[in-house]
Structures are given as structure tokens and as C-alpha cells.
Amino acid sequence: MADGSAVPNVKTTCPYCGVGCGVSGAVAQERALSVSGDKAHPANLGRLCSKGTALGATVGLQGRLLEPTINGKSASWSDATALVARRFKDTIARHGPDSVAFYVSGQLLTEDYYVANKLMKGFIGSGNIDTNSRLCMASAVAAHKQAFGADLVPGCYEDLDLADLVVFSGHNAAWTHPVLFRRMEAARARGQKHVVIDPRRTDTAEGADLHLAIAPQSDVRLWNGLLAHLIRIDAVDRDYIAAHVNGFAEVVEALEELDQSPAAVATDCGVPVEDVLTFFDLFAAHERTVSLFSMGANQSAQGTAKGLSILNVHLATGRIGKPGGCPFSITGQPNAMGGRETGGMANTLAGHMDFAPADRDRVARFWGAPDTARAPGLKAVDMFEAIHAGKIKAVWVMATNPAVSLPDAGRVREALERCPFVVVSDCVETDTTAFADVKLPALAWGEKDGTVTNSERRISRQRALFPAPGQARADWRIVADVAKAMGFDGFGWASNASVFREWARLTAYENTDRVLNLSGLSALTPEAYAELLPMQWPVAADGQGTPRLFVNGRFQTPDGRARMVPTRPKGPADAVDAAYPMSLNTGRIRDQWHTMTRTGLAPDLCRHAPEPFVEVHPADAEALGVKDGALARVITTRGEAVALAKVTDRQRPGGLFMPMHWTDAFAPSGRTNPLVAPNLDPTSGQPEFKHTPARIRAYRETWKGFFLTRDSLSLPPGLDLVWRRIPHDACQQHEFAGRGDEVERAALRKVLAKGLTGELVTYEDAATGARRDAWVQDGRLTAVLYVTLTGRLPPRDWLAELFAEPVLGAQARSALLFGRPPGAPADKGPLVCACLKVGAKAVQAAIAAGAASPDAVGAATGAGTNCGSCRPEIARMIAASASVSSKEPVHV
Fold it and tell me: Each residue of 305-336: pLDDT tens digit?
């Protein structure tokens, strides 16, 4: 793009989950973008999920940071860079290198990660750089290092095709990794079995051969019970253990401390003994088994033990390094793996090296940085606690939103407020940028150029489709410029390709036994880097990649043998009690990503789950007076949130589930992570997001309403209301609820009406408390406000569609006052298929017409034919329809 114009049909990589799907992007004009899956990319073979499909709707410039600012005022790059460098230098001079910190992100490219890590650990001389991958994958990293000697994921996606049994341990793949789930769905057609271990009956569990709805924190007990059973029936591979594994005897001894009978395991896990035996028998019978473990296993105060208990079973049975047989940690972010490789975590150095003297000195020699850090730094939660305590006095947050995503998020905000100097480099405004003294505009996806590594160790290129907007710069360049302004040498790269070559050389430097080795890529020319094809590391000198690790049974330990590590089940760090009798579990939903800074720009992605919700079992809801579809309060010792109640038997009794995505910009009362206690895994430092003692109560609002307008709102403080924002194509929908009187409602109307001009059309019914206001400017609808005390509110979709009309007709004006759509417009119902915009009504009509499978519904409506993440929901709708039909009386 030397002429500054975008080039169509650019092959790049999706910026969402760790699958690392290839994307082909075609730019029509300006920033208009159409995307399709790259059929040549081995990760996805042309498939994209709903989020990837909607990338074209997320590349606008709304909300973007386009110039540096200092204390909220525009600044030049030279001034902003100089200030950041001076403040960091002064802080280090007064308080030492550990008084500063970087908090970075799996959204960074590998080149960005490498430069940030080199600056902090190599030249500032502190270990205080950590990544938001600490919240996702740190426990898997710790387990891999203990078992294999390094953070090495042994399998590849082909194993998911070849496996005869797949165990999903805390992994709702149908929603979080739908492209991989479709591959496994195809394998099921030839007989592949699925077992899901999850307290919730997720969409992945819905269609599985076996669902184990275990009690919170009983994973280790279940996997240990499986291993004990395999030993009891002599289904372990003693030859493999003798040749390649240490620690087996110690693990056996630890297992003998508890009753490992299936009945005892079932009791402790809270599931039927028949289901436990079925799981044990399935695992014993299928040599080609892949155990996928993700957030449900990792995000725990026992996350490392959970990972080790899974690895123990695979090592004991020799199911590792073989086609279709491996333990497989699935990452959550597009470059979580790249961050782990380059030393983005506080407890590692780059290139899978640690702080042992030999490793530290090797890295210092390579960098020419004698002050390279000699000890690990603070992990994420501890880092922000140190900021809160005043020990860290300057922090640089890069491409992440800790004010929303960290546990005990209210305390994180207090820490940022207290910190003397906060720098945020990001592409958009976030809840975290509100605390920044200096904001630095970074490139977004579609503008970035570099590499990422996916869950199967495959390096892929992200390529730019657009020129840099405004003054935005690449993250690696921003960091390098600050490093040079601080007086450090070694940061004068001419391009991202130069950064990558240095990184690749480091992996090969004095490397006699480290598996992570990119020697075959260390001399890439700029042209070869630009054309780099997806490749799995380690990459040999001849440029060939490696699909599977440990094929020869040799591991990255001093003696080359894997290590089995005893694990002992423990209860939750915080137990439920009379005050907080329920267990709050948090996680993701199908069509949103992290804190919605990207997916929140795509209206279609906001339709399946348009607002914060809390799932609760019917028995719990009835006992507590919580109604389906009404607002509910969820309370922990850390805070309170208000969300829409979803009463469902898919939730385990005694448990609650809330998604973590919503922010101040979308639903300030529905933010989840301020509720989460910061309990940590003692080894990995990963927070416990899957269990916080909680209680739930009905919100009991006295009135409710909604406001549609062309612009999003930012309500002033002082209005004690619950509100949520839901994007539409032509307007923004704001839902309100309150427990006050007319004074409260009048105050809200005053705020909403501020700045609105044109004709005001009003209807008011004092008897019911209903009020309807509509503002029309130059014949176009500009805003609508509906409020009611006791009545029902009308559907919003037809009102939202009126904002797209160039002129509002007389019939539409009347409909605004009546609160009913003119005529009989089609009701699409809730969106089921976000990819192809198919609503529930169309799916139900197809089922009524005889479509008896997801494939048949897809043929009739298109739903489920793209990414397939809605197929489990379609199957559920088919089953529900069949159940209703079977209960209908037969007329003779």
C-alpha cells in the first residue's frame, strides 16, 4: 500500500479467538470491507464464525483514538513520547525499576509483544510486564511447564478430525471456538464421541454423548478418579511410562489418600455414578482421545492442578504425540500464544526461557542488556494491587481494558485513579482510557501488520487492509520510540519484518534443547516476510514446520522425560454460606468478544443476547421470587450488578452464570467482573472466575422504558437507574428501569430531551403512567421515548426500522402514538443465526413445515450453514417442537 490506498483481497488473520482463522478481505472503497474465509488457511479451510463474518461492520472510525493526548488535550507524537519517557525515567530514578509496569494484551502482534518485553525486562530491568492472557491461559502454561519442561502444546487441529473421543473440559466450543466445533461435528458423523465436563448444559453439552454437570471445583477429583480407574483396570501404558515418564509412583501414592471408587468420585462431583462410569469406560475404550481444556479449567484457583490432572491421564496412557491423541489447551485470544512465546508473562523471559541464571544471562547477551531483569515480576492481579498500594507509580496499559476485564474491577479502577502516571495505548476509547494521563493512538485490526500464533502453534500473518487513520501507529513502533527517548540502544528497527527476524534469531540463539526454535525464519527477507504462509513451530533450518510435539517421547526436561505431578482436590477458596449461598460463574457468549470494543460495533452481533443476563435454575428462581425476563440483582461481597433473569434448567441448581462483556458504554449496572473475588491460583496467578459466592434477588423496578436515538448516550452521574444500550443499524436502543417516582422519570426525560430539536409528538396516560414521546426533524424520526409503570412496552424492532426511513409518513406517526406497528409486519423473533440474520420465527416456521434436523432447517432458511454456532440452538428448537407435538391430543 505504498500509495496509501487499500488493496482488495488481502489475506490476513482473524483478530478474535485462538483458532487463528484465515480471512480474505476485499476493500471496495474507503473503509467499506467485505470478508470471507481463506479456503487455503489450514486453521479454518474457509470457515468463519459469526464474529469473523461480521468483521466488515467493525472497521469504522467511531470511537477511535486518532491522535495523542496529554491530560485530555491534543498533543504531538514527539511531545507525548517525550513525556512518557521522562516520567518513566524519573520514576525509575527515584523508586527503582520495579516502580513501573506494563500490562499488555493478546490483541498485540508478536512483534509488539517482543519489543515491549525487551524494553521492560531487558533495558528497564524489571519483570513487571504481564499480559491479559494471565486471565485466560496462565494455568495451562504452568501445567505444561511442570509436566513437559516448557509451555508446549503438543497437538494440532488435525487431531480433532482423527480422534475417536473428544473430552471438553470446561470448554463450550460450540460458542467459543465454533470453527473447530464444526470440524468435530463432521467427525461425529463417522462416530466420534463427545463428553462435556461443565456445570452448565451449554450448547456444546446439549448434543454431546455424555454431559457431566459437575459441582464447582470438582474437576481434579473427577480426573484423578479417572486415572485411578484406568490403573485399576490396567488400562495405563506401563511401557510408555517406563520409557518416557517420571513421577508415576508418586501420583499413585497421592491417589491412594482418597477413596477413588466411582461411587465416591460421583458423590464428590455431584453427578450420577452411572455417568461417571460411562465416562471412565469411554476414555478406556478409545485410544485416540483428545482432551480439550479451556477457561472452565484454567480460570480457577485450582487451575494448574486441573491442567496437571488432565496431563497425568494422558501421560499415563501414552496418549500424547500421536495422531488423534493428546491433551490440548485451547487459547482464547488471537495471539495469546505469541505473547507466551515472547515473554509477555511476568514469570518468563522471551523464547520460553525463564529466570534461571543461564537463561537470564543468555537473553542479556543476545540483547546487549546487562541490566536484564533477574527475577519474575508481578502477575496481573498482584500488579494492580501494587498500583493500588502505591508501590507501582507508573503503568502503561497496551491494547486491553483491565477496568472491565480483571476481577474485583472496582478496586482496579481505584488503583488506576490513584496511580500517579497512567499511559494507555489503544485503538479505541475504553473504560480504562478514562484513567489515562497520556493516550497513544494505536493501529486496529485491518491496519496492523505482523504475526500471530494460534492454539496449534501456527504462525500466521495479519496484514493491513487500510492505511493508518489519523496519527495512529503500530504498537511496536510506539514502544520503540519511547525506548529510544529513554536513551536505550537496540530499538532502531526499520520495519516489523526487522523485529520479527530479531525475535526468530533469539529463539535459535544458543539453542541446544529448547523446542521453540524459529531458526528457519530468522533470515527472512522483507519480501519473504510479506508473503509468509501459515506455519507451525518449531521451524527447522530448512523452513519446515512441525505439526505434533513429543512424537519421539522426548520432552524439554533435563532428562528428556515427562513429569507426572500429584494433584489433590480442594474445595473452593471461598465457600458459599447463608449470606451468599450460590456460586457465580462468569464467561463468554456466542457473538460477543471480550469487552465489546469491536463486536459492539456490529448490530447483528448484539441481537442474540442483546443485554446482560443472569442464568438461574427454576427451583432457585421460584424460591427467591426471580421471574424469567425480569431484572434481577446479583450481589457478592465485592459488589452488585443488575441483569435480565434467564430461568433455565440448563443451569445447575445453586449456581448462577453471567457473561463478562458489558462495559460502561453498554450497561454500567450489568458489569460482571466487579462482583468477582480476586482469588488466585497460587502457582499460575490466574484468577478464579468460575466461582464466587453470591446471592440473587428480584430488582423490583417501579417503572421501565426505552429510548431510541441516532446517537449513543452517556448519562450524567446522579441518576440512580439501570440502563443498557443495544446497537441497531440506524439507531441506538437504550433500555431503562428505575425504582423511583415521577421526579426520577422527569429528570431522565430532561436529560434525554437535551439537544433534541424539531417537532415533539407526545401521548400520555395518567391512569397507567404510560408516556410516549417522538421527535421528528425535517420529516425524519430522530428520537423515541416510551415509559410505562404498569403496562407492557411494544416491540422495538419496528421502531428501530423507522429510523432508516427518509421521511416519516402519517401512518407511521400515528403508530408512534398508538405504540403499535402499522399493518402486520413480520416478527422475526430473537436472532438465531447472526451470520445470515435468520430469526427464531423463520426457524420455527421451517420446523413446522417438516424440517427435522439442523441441516434441513439450514436448507430452508440458511441458518447454521456458515459458522454453525447456532446449530445446537436449532437442534434444541427442533427437540422442543417435537416434545410439544408428542403431548398434543390425537384427534380421531
Answer: 999 999 999 999 999 999 999 999 998 889 99
> Please, what's the b/e burial string for 13-28 (b: 16 or more CB within 10 A of its CB; e: otherwise)?
bbbbbbbbbbbbbbbe
End-to-end CA distance of the chain: 73
| Residue count of the chain | 892
Would you state the cell numbers that stand for residue 710, as one nine-digit string? 441516532
Describe the chain by its helix, strand, coil percentages, rounded to 5.
35, 20, 45
Beta bridge partners of 428: 64
d(CA 880, CA 569): 38
Q: Which amino acid is at 149?
A: G
Of the candidates 733, 147, 139, 146, the one whose C-alpha atom is nearest the C-alpha of residue 380 is: 139
Q: What is the pLDDT of residues 498-518, one digit of tens each?
A: 999 999 999 999 999 999 999
Residues 702 and 294: their CA atoms lie apart, in Å, by 42
Cell readout for 73 is 488535550
Burial string for 718-728 (b: 16+ CB within 10 Å, else e) reads eeebbbbbbbb
Q: At a CB cut-off of 8 Å and minimum separation 6, what does 723 contact?
A: 667, 668, 669, 713, 715, 734, 735, 736, 737
pTM of the complete model: 0.95
Report the pLDDT value the prediction gives residue 892, as an integer from 0 to 100. 27
Q: Provide the grid cell at 741.
A: 417516582
Strand order across the 10-13 sheet: 10-13, 22-27, 33-37
Contact 312, 237 (CB under 8 A): no
Three-state secondary structure of 593-651: CCCCCCHHHCHHHHCCCCCCEEEECHHHHHHHCCCCCCEEEEECCCCEEEEEEEECCCC
SS3 809: coil
